[in-house]
Amino acid sequence: MTKLANYLEGRWQEGAGAGAPVLDPVTGETLATVSADGLDMAAAYAFAREKGGTALRALSYAQRAELLSAIVKVLQANRDKYFEISLKNSGTVQNDSGVDVDGGIYTLSYYAKLGSKLTAKALMADGTPDALARDNAFATQHILVPAHGLALFINAFNFPSWGLWEKAAAALLSGVPVVAKPASATAWLTHEMVKDVIDANILPTGALNIVCGRPAGMLDALDPLDLVSFTGSADTAASLRDHPKIKHEGVRFNAETDSVNSAILGPDADDDAMGLLVREVVRELTIKSGQKCTAIRRIMVPESRYAAVAAALADKLKGITVGDPRNENIRMGSLVSTSQRDAILQGISQLEACSDILFDGRKDIAIQADHANHAIVPPVVFGTTTPDTHPLVHQMEVFGPVATLMPYRDTDHALALARRGMGSLVASVYSNDSTFLAQAAVALAESHGRVHLINNDVAKVQTGHGNVMPQSNHGGPGRAGGGEELGGLRALRFYHRLAAVQSAPGVLEAIVN
To answer: One of 256, 284, 397, 484 is an active-site residue; which one?
Structure first.
């Protein structure tokens, strides 16, 4: 039995005890174990700051970008191995594994190219100087300098590759060392990727670290100038925010949490636009079995199209093959664990109390798997014709292949329903009416991190409702956690400190040029 070791203080260290199992969600086989018991996190963090951080900051942005390019080559060389691990540990089919594995590699590549064009200085100017005295004899210039702390990533189970590298790309490019804490259920892939990069001896010692399991004192050992980036449930985020290091000592905290995302069919609602929405909903229900923070959870359509959309969704979904991803004909695989399966089934029961089931894959799709205690749940689509009086459909995210269809009366009603999510990562809008698309963008921007507008022309080249691209902001206000990631250079701001430098204009010019 393989125990996934932890890489801290420049060496691999096994946690004490037998450890928690990492399972195949279809067969129930134990693939590995994880343990962080007995680790000295204070010493590990000090090493990362002093060794890894110092070495990274000694390099220019372009030099650190070269390190990212070297990591990309290592990951690409081992791509087939990562797909095999994903199949076993995450229960995903080949295409779904690609969203995670290739998505992580692409994001690293993007930041490597972006970083190669940045300044050779150890800082970035933020805006232009502003005069503080007559004749501009005294002025102020805001600058961004790399944080001298470390970045702790507490990541979710659904994207063990992309979840690491979309954060690590910006942190390492900024000159900040990384400590990755993957979710135990799918830690194998994250561990294998980190191990391959460590073995390739690309990064300075202490720049990239990993801890698997639940180490004691993980937050207690942080310093006020460290950073924490969390992806997971709103309840866990709330408990982390309440930790003294974050609440009282000012450790910077970024969170991506629950999100009841929307897809909206425009009031023009021709067959082409409806087809675009239906295809995207089916894709979001089935990719990674709906275990995506950006997946469509609510579907808003004109009242006149409610029955037609319900029928079209059912027709598409009944043709989906669901089961063990080892079978080549399977399109939709497993959830990551039986505990997630049970949580999703409980959520389905709660929605069933206030909504109608329009399509129930548990009855209409035969699961193709040889093992009885698997973690596979087919798609379920709910519907409610009175969305204004059922708050649960706007408040509860069932983190799996579940969505709710609802009709709207007019444009204002549609946008109001979308905003009832009280903060979401993404809303997608399907219409060939440019005026409506523009109106939706303005109305939804305040409550959504990303607004995805699709007409017939864009449909030919779009990246998809749920695909998070590094060029765009990823995050959302309110229930979605209030955090921000990616968005090109914007992502680097989290790993920098902002300071206002006040001096003579000539001095300020020498600093930034």
So the answer is: 256
- How crowded is residue 78: how many other Cβ atoms within 10 Å of its Cβ? 18
256 is catalytic: yes
Structural domains of the chain in order of their starting residue, each with its CATH number: 3-257+486-512 (3.40.605.10), 261-472 (3.40.309.10)
pTM over 0.90: yes
DSSP structure string for 380-423: EEEE-S-GGG-THHHH----SSEEEEEEESSHHHHHHHHHTTSS
84 is catalytic: no
Tokens, residue 32: 């590995």
Predicted confidence (pLDDT) per residue in 266-318, tens digit: 998 899 999 999 999 999 999 999 999 999 999 999 999 999 999 999 999 99
**Residues recorded for the chain:** 513
Q: What is the pLDDT of residues 366-377, one digit of tens each?
A: 999 999 899 999
Catalytic residue among 9, 166, 284, 293: 293
| Both structure tokens of 178 | 């990384």
Where b means 16+ CB within 10 Å and e means fewer, 225-261 reads ebbbbbbbbbeebeebeebebbeeeebbbbbbbbbbb
